[in-house]
Amino acid sequence: VVLALTLAVYYFYGYTLNRVTLFALIFSIGILVDDPIVDVENIVRHFHLPENKDKSVIDTVVGAVSEVRSPLILATLTVIAAILPMAFVRGLMGPYMRPIPVGASVAMLLSMVVAFIVTPWASAKILGPIREKSAHHESEDKLTKLYRHYMGLLINSKRHRAFFLIFVSLLLLISVSFIYFKIVKVKMLPFDNKSEFQIVVDMPEGTTLEKTYEVTKALGDYLKNVPEVVNYQIYVGSSSPYNFNGLVRHYFLRNKPNQADIQVNLKPKHDRKAQSHDIAKRIRPDIEKIASRFSGANVKIVEIPPGPPVLQTLVAEIYGPDYKRQIEIAEEIKNIFKSTEGVVDVDWYVEDDQQKIHLVVDKEKAGRLGVTNYAVVEVVNTAFNGAVAGLMHNPYEKEDAEIFVKVPKEYRTSLNNILSLRVRSSNGTLIPLRELVTIENKIVDKSIYRKNLKRVVYVTADVSGKEESPVYAIMKLNEKIDKIKLKEGYGLKKYVLSMPFTSEEFSMKWDGEWHITYEVFRDLGLAFSAVLIVIYVLVVGWFGDYRVPLVIMAPIPLSLVGIIPAHALMSAFFTATSMIGFIAGAGIVVRNSIILGDFIELRIKEGMPLEEAVIDAGAVRFRPMLLTASAVVVGSSVILFDPIFQGLAISLMAGEIAATLLSRMVVPVLYYLHRKNQLRRA
Question: Is the pTM of this model over 0.85?
Fold first, then answer.
C-alpha cells in the first residue's frame, strides 16, 4: 500500500521510473516498516504481560498502540526532518538525488498512518486468536541478562562509566581519522561500471586527416588485443555518436581533420570481472605510450560519468584583463598539472600556432594591368575550392551535368604552383598571380572562449592512480599554484563556487567535478545542520527539556564508528550517497533514542527507580530497535553492490548496526547522568 502510494506521488511530481527512483524505493522499504515494527513488537509484549491476561484483545491492542503513539509520531517526524532537507540541494546534483528524500518522506508519513490504522487491526485479527497460546511471561535470554548485569556496572560505578565513555569516544576519533589519513577517500560519486568508453584524439591544429588516421589506427590495433573489448569504431574528422556527456563537452563540434574519436564497446558487465574504470585505468599507460610515438598527439580516455556530466574532472578557468597574459598563466598551470602525480589527460582550450599565408593584392599594379580584385579572388578560390565552369549536355541523360573545375590536390600543396596560376585581365592577357600579389606570413586567429561575458582560458585534466578523487589532486595543485608569482606583483587568487566579480586582476576558478563535489557536500552539510536544529526543536517540544535532546542526539556521530571503517573494509569512496545514508541514518538513530527516552520516562512515572528505569528501557526496547536496524540492513543490502549507491547502502547498514548497539548503552548512561543531575539540583 505504502509503495503504491509513493509511486503515485512520483507520478504527480513527474518522476520517471529510473535508476535513482527505483533505488529511492528500495531505500524507502528499509525505513517504512519502522513504525509497524514498533507497533507490533509492543502489542506482542503486551500480550505477554500477566496484567493484560483478563483484558480483551481489542483493549490490549489499543493500550499497546497508545503507549507508543506519541513517541512514534515524534520519531517519524524526526526521520522526515532528517531526510527532507536533502531535497533542497542545489546545482546539478539537486534534481539527480531529489527523488530519494521526496519518496522516503512520503513513505514515512504513509507508514505512520498504516501503523495507527492497518497494523492494530491486522494485529487484532491475526495475533488475537493465538494470544491464548502465547499468553505467558517470557523469561529473558542470556544476552539480556548479561546486558542488565553490565549496565548495572555502568550505572552504579563511576570508574566503569568513565572507562566506557572514553572508549566510545576513542572509537569515534579513530574512525574519523580514517578520512584524515586517506584510508577512506572522499569523492562526489564513485566510478560506474559501463559497457563503453571513448578515446579522444587531438592532434596539433593543421594536422592532415591522413596523419590523424594513422595515430587513431595505431590505437585501434592495440585495442584489438584488449580481452574485454568486443569492438570499436573510429571516427576521424567527424564526431562519434554523442550522449549527454558528449553534449556537455561539445563533442558534436569535433569535425576538424586533427580530431578523432574511438568508440570502444566492452563485454556485458556479467561477462567480465573488471569494471569499465579498471579497464580504462589499465590501458591508459599503453595508450599514452602509443600516442607518444607521434609528435603532438594528445589522447584522453573518456568514461561516462556516474552522475551529472562536467567539462572534465579537473577544470581550471583563468580570468584576467589581457587574453595573451591569460594564456601565459594557463600554460604555467598546465605545466603544473603535468608535473603533479595522479593528474592525467592534461589539455587546454588553446589552439596551436598555425601559419597562414596572406596574399595581398597590389591594387595599383593590378589596376594598371586591367585586373580586378574579384578576378584574383575568383582564381584562388577556384583553385582551392573549385567552381562550376558550365554544363555538359548528354543526349542520353535527362539532366545536364555540372562541369566542376578544381586544381589537383598535389598541385595545391606548393605555393609556387599557386603563384603560377594566371589571371585574365580586361584585354584578355593572362598574368601570373605572383605579379599581382605580395606575400605576408601570419598566425591564424585563435578562438576566444567566454563565460558569463568574461574571457576565459580553460585547462583540463583527469585524475588516476592511487588517489582517484579530485579532492586530493586539487590539494596538491593548490600548494603549487599558491607559489606562482605573477609579474604584475600579486598572487593568483582562486575561486571555487563563484566567479571573480571583475577581470581587472588575473584569477583562477576551479570547476568540473570539484565544483559539484564542493557544492554537494556544502549543501548536504547545511542540510545536516538544519536536520540537527529541527530534531532538537522537536525533542525539546516533546520532553520539555533543553538538555534531553543532546542525550537523544548523542548516538548520531556514533554511526560513524560503523560507517567509515565499513567503507575502508569495502575499499569504497565516501561519496555523496554515503553522506545521504549518514543523514538518513541519523533520523533512524534518533528515532530509537526517542523510544528509549520515552520508555525511561514511562517507567519513572510508574514508580520505578531511575537506575532500574534506564536499564529496563535498554533491555525491553532493544528488540524493536534491533528489528528496525535489521529491516534497514536487509532493505539496503539490495543496493550494496551497485557502483553508485554502494555508499548509501554501506552508511545505512554499518551505521545502523553500530549506532543500534552503542546507543543501547550510551543513551541510558547519558540519560541517567542527566536525570541524576536534575534530581541533585532539585
Answer: no
